[in-house]
Amino acid sequence: MSKKTQKAPEKKPAPRPEPAPKKAVDPRMHPIPLKVEYDDKHTNDFRGDVKEVGFHFAGYEWSSKEQQLLIDLHYDQLYYWKLAELSKMGRGFLDGELWGTQCPRCGDKFFPPRVNCWRLDEELQRTDWVRLEPQGHVHTFTIAGWSGKSSLKRLPFVLAYVVVDGCKTAIANELRGVKPWDPEFKMPVKVVWAPKEERRGVITDFHFEPADGWKPGPMNPEKERIKELCAPVYEWVKTLK
Amino acid sequence: MSRRVCLAGGAATPFDYPMHLEPESMIANCIVETQHDIPDFHLRNLQFMVYSHFSVHFGKQLAPEWIVHDHLGLVGVPHFRIENGGNTGGSALYAAFLAVKSGMFDVIGVAGWETMDNVSQSQGSEFIALASDTRYEALAGGIYPIYYAAMAHKFMKENGLTEEDFALAAVKNRNNAVDNEKSQWYRGEYQQYKRDLTIDDVMKSRLMSYPLKRYDCCLMSRGGAFCLITSEEWAKKHADGRYVVIDGAGLSSCTIRAGDRLNFPGWTEMYGEGYPDMTEFAACRKSGEDAYDMAGIEYDKALKSIDVAEIHDAFSSSEVQIYKALHWCNKDNIREFVREKRTFMGGDLPVNPGGGLMGYGHPVGATGIMSAVECYYQLTDLTPKKHRSSKTYVKNANTGLVNSHAGTGTSISNFIFRRP
Ligand SMILES: [Zn+2]
Asked: Does residue A143 sit at the B interface (CB-CB below 8 Å)?
């Protein structure tokens, strides 16, 4: 690590910039809208009693024996998630349509959408939006008996990774309309939309259900085992307020 | 690449939930304990600090490393923080490794912690789920045990394994942790059990997400860890007999969403169609192979070449998946490998004698460093002194492996440690 001893080059006045020639836009560039005005606002449709208050000191606890202090701090934040170039997907959720993307060069199809192709040699080829058939098959699945704070009341539930309409990827979402011990690998499923007034433009606007005509196989030792594991979960959920 | 990099001292705090110690005090305690082992090491030796901390959500504190650094008295010493999910600790070690390897520095402190006990367990689970793609999985009610369960379910089926096979790792690591008084298992639930955990206990524990039960999952913790990454010259001079050489280091990456790796071109061109799918940890395989290459270990002889390993057993299932990714077994012999207890104490490759994440705990930013320190204790014969007995001491171990793992297998590092 040597100290820099080079002389700074003499400064010349910057030449007046020429008016920029109209450059051809590289089609791989994602456009950025100059200004966005939202004319169809639903900002409070689902807010409930959530208030944004920032730091809120809810209380404190003191241990006289150990001389230890604990502060109860509540902090809340409302985020403004802009879906930007993924808005087509979110609009689709609101409208009950499933939109993914497809690479015009290699044909790979994606849900959830990838805005550029994943093949390195295609140097970020932009993908096109394609409407997907609302059906697919289960790639793998699990039966949740525990979850994050906001999902505890709907336990136990099945989370399935589903390959939708021939995509190269799998999307995780809840599989309903089936007992937790009944799903099967590769089972056909369909997309089922939430009632229109409950949709929020997010992935939970839909869930999966078994395709019409699909029937679960008979009970077997593994299903009995899962049923037994679920029993206390059902009981526990009943105790939640 | 001739300059050799060493780990020349380190320590961890107890891991617990809750625990009453601020981050700067955690690291101070670790440095003091390190000085007991390496009396020549002074704060003034530190030329660069690499901090390892995962989630600022837990402390409601951005840049918490600035507090720790300042309160250690290290103003003026360069520092930065690495955040890389569950592999934050391994990635901080990797950064320090690169910095010594480059010749820029001779003595680097790597310090990590997490304060997950600042929130409730279910809130904590949701925080961690923010490290999945929140536009998709997390909103659908997914948390990490659920993602891992979905992967483990398919892995279990395709490799002919059972819930009981996974439970073996859960039992092994917790029972190893009983020999480690800093471990969360020993400090906490073990005090009620006062006996070894059994497969039956695991099978009867509450469903987290099939096939994983509560005892198949690691713990949420508060805790800190510290280690010294140094040049060989410094280690020889100041930590003689108390250092290991880092002979191999690998870091690799995979998709954030497990559902995106069924056909990913970056993997299929390297390892063939259908790999890793949602069952294999490709980034573990790749970073393991890179570390093996650097250390001159042939993949098919890896099992024989390694004497002890500390790996990222966030879930019992992922420990088993890691065995396969690191070439210790394959689809044909994985069942026997697990059932013959090859990774138990007394087996040919004891894994997680320190207790691992399921036994010791998982305060994310500290975890990878804890694993490295536990492996270092084995290779410098400090284990009998650090643990409650010699039961979890792997005698005459020459080569160790340390593994740190993030996301759904999204970032993974592997290191090969050797006695000098
Ligand atoms: Zn393409």
From this structure: yes
In a domain, A1, yes or no: no
Structural domain includes residue A115: yes
Q: Do A223 and A134 fall within a single domain?
A: yes
- pTM for this entry: 0.94
Structural domain for A59, as ranges = 36-82
Query: A128-182 pLDDT, tens per residue?
Result: 999 999 999 999 999 999 988 888 899 999 999 999 999 999 999 999 999 999 9
CB within 8 Å: B207 and A233: yes
Fold of B5-119+221-230: Peroxisomal Thiolase; Chain A, domain 1 (3.40.47)
CA distances from B356 to B16, B137, B217, B377 (A): 13, 27, 11, 14
- In chain B, residues with a C-beta closer than 8 Å to the C-beta of A185 are 154, 157
Which residues are within 8 A (CB) of B82 and not within 5 positions of it... i.e. 6 or more apart? B50, B51, B52, B88, B91, B92, B95
> Are A65 and A92 in the same domain?
no
Number of domains within chain A:
2
| Helix pair B121-129, B144-158: axis angle to 10 deg | 70
Q: What is the pLDDT of residue A6?
A: 53
ipTM: 0.95
Please indicate whether, in this complex, the C-beta atoms of B123 and A163 are within 8 angstroms of each other.
Answer: no
Domain edges within chain B: 5-119+221-230
A165 and chain B: CB distance < 8 Å anywhere?
Answer: no
Which residue numbers in chain B have pLDDT < 50? none
Contacts of A118 in chain B (CB under 8 A): 264-266
Residues of B in contact with A101 (CB under 8 A): none
Quote the pLDDT of residue A184: 98
Closest by Cα among B365, B357, B361 to B58: B365
Q: Nearest CA to CA, how far is A237 from chain B (Å)? A: 13
Residue A123 in domain: yes
Facing residue for B145 by CB, picked from A141, A146, A154: A146
Identify whether residues A76 and A146 lie together within a single domain. no
Interchain CB contact of A194 with B (< 8 Å): no
Q: What is the mean pLDDT of residues A74-89?
A: 92
pLDDT at B357: 98
pLDDT in tens, B354-371: 999 999 999 999 999 999
Structure tokens belonging to residue B170: 């859960």
All residues of chain B having their beta carbon less than 8 Å from the beta carbon of residue A76 are none
- Angle (CA) B341 B344 B348, round 5°: 80
Q: Mutate which of A140, A157, A202 to disrupt the B interface (most B C-beta within 10 Å)?
A: A140
Q: Quick check: A9 contacting B, CB < 8 Å?
A: no
d(CA A173, CA A144): 12
For the segment B164-218, what is each residue's pLDDT rounded down to a tens digit? 999 999 999 999 999 999 999 999 999 999 999 999 999 999 999 999 999 999 9
Strands B207-209 and B212-213: antiparallel
Same domain, A61 and A173: no
Q: Are residues A163 and A69 in the same domain?
A: no
Residue A8 lies in a domain: no
Taking the Cβ of residue A71 and every Cβ of chain B, the question of whether any pair is shorter than 8 Å is answered with no
Residues A106 and A214 in one domain: yes
Question: What are the chain B neighbours of A156 within 8 Å (beta carbons)?
Answer: 207
Which of A57, A82, A107 is where one domain is finished? A82
Q: Locate tokens 């906001």: which residue?
A: A150
